[in-house]
Amino acid sequence: MLNCSVMSSWKNIFAFTKQERNGIIVLILLILAVVVYLIIQPSHVATDYAVPVVEAPSTVKDTTEIQETILDKNSSEGNEELSDTKERSVFQQAELFPFNPNGLPEEDWVRLGLSPAQAKSIKKFESKGGTFRKKEDVKKLFVISPEKYLQLEPYIVIPEFSGDTTKNFRKKESIVIYELNTADTSMLVRVKGIGPVFAARIVAYRNRLGGFHHKEQLKEVFGVDDEKYNLIQGSFTVDSTYISKININSVEISELRKHPYFTSGLATALVNYRKMHGPYQQLKDIMNCRLVNAELYRKIAPYLSI
C-alpha cells in the first residue's frame, strides 16, 4: 500500500494539463531560440558593429611620411653642418702662400685648401680658355665660396699682361731652364709638375746613374710617365760632362753592380773577361763580351772609361 501511495504522489507531481504542457513547450522553444541567438550573435556583432579599418593605412602612411620629412630635414641640416665643419677644417689646414692662379697645378690648389674635385674644376675652366686677369676673377668661380675667396685674396698675385688670350699671357711668362745634372731638389720643385717627392726621386736616380746623359732618362725615374715627361722636359737641359764615369779596367763586380744599367750577370762577365784577357785597350773592346750587343753598348758606354 505504501508503494502505491508513493507512485501516486509522483504521478500527481508530473501530471500536467494540456495548457501547462503547451506552456512548457513554448518555454523550451524560447530557451532554444535564445541559445541559438547567443551562438549566432558574435558574428553579427563583428559584421554589424566592427570598427572600420580603412582609415588605418592612411593614418600610418601619413605618420610615416611625416617621420620621413622630419628625418630628411634633420639629415639635410646635419649635412649642412658637416659641410660647414669640413670647410672650416680645410680652411684651418690650408697652406697659404703667394700664387698666380693662371696655370697653378692642381696639387697647389689642394695645398691652398681646395678639394681635389674643386681643383679639377678650375683646371677644366682653364683648359677651355679661361684666364684670370684680376683677383676678382677668382671670386667668380662657382667652386670658390665668398669665405674662401676672402681667405685667398691677400695671396693672389697676377702679373700685368697685354693681349686677349691665354696664349699671349703665357708668352710673357719667363721660363726658367735648369741643368739636370746640377739642379738640387729646391730647384726641381720650382718646375711645374714636380713636387718634393718627384724631386727627391730624380736626384736619387741621378746619383745612382752618375748623371744624366740625355733628358729621356727621366722616364726611368719611378712615376714619370710620358704625360709627366712631356710636362717637365722643356724646363731642363743636360750637360753630359758632369757624368761620373766608371773605370772598367779597375772596377770590381760588387761596385759595378750598383749601377742601374749593369745586372749581376753583365758585371760578372765584363770583369771576368778583363781578368782573362787583360785590360781593355779601347772602350769598344767590351763588345767582345758575349753579353754586350750594339744597343747595350750605346746605353752603357757614356758611363765607362778605360
Task: Describe what this molecule looks like in 3D.
With 306 residues, the chain is mostly helical. Among the domains are: 106-172, no CATH class; 178-242, Tex RuvX-like domain-like (DNA polymerase, domain 1), CATH 1.10.150.310; 246-305. Helix content is 56%, strand content 3%. It contains 14 helices and four strands. It has helices at residues 2-13, 18-49, 55-93, 106-111, 116-127, 135-139, 146-152, 166-172, 185-188, 196-209, 226-232, 253-256, 264-277, 294-300; strands at 178-179, 236-237, 246-247, 304-305. Strands 1-2 form a two-stranded parallel ribbon. The chain has a two-stranded parallel ribbon with strand order 3-4. The protein starts with a helix and ends with a strand. The relative contact order is 0.05.
What is the topology?
Elements (H helix, E strand, L loop, with lengths): L1 H12 L4 H32 L5 H39 L12 H6 L4 H12 L7 H5 L6 H7 L13 H7 L5 E2 L5 H4 L7 H14 L16 H7 L3 E2 L8 E2 L5 H4 L7 H14 L16 H7 L3 E2 L1
Parallel strand pairs: 1-2, 3-4
Strand order of the largest sheet: 1-2
Percent helix range: 55-70%
So how many helices?
14
Structural category: mainly alpha
> Rough shape?
elongated
| Biggest sheet layout | 2 strands, parallel
User: What amount of the residues lies in strands?
Assistant: under 5%
Radius of gyration: 49 Å
Q: How confident overall, as mean pLDDT? A: 78
What's the total count of β strands?
A: 4
Low-confidence stretches: 43-64, 66-92, 162-173
Sum up the structure in keywords:
DNA polymerase, domain 1, mainly alpha, 3% strand, 306 residues, two-stranded parallel sheet, two-stranded parallel ribbon, 4 strands
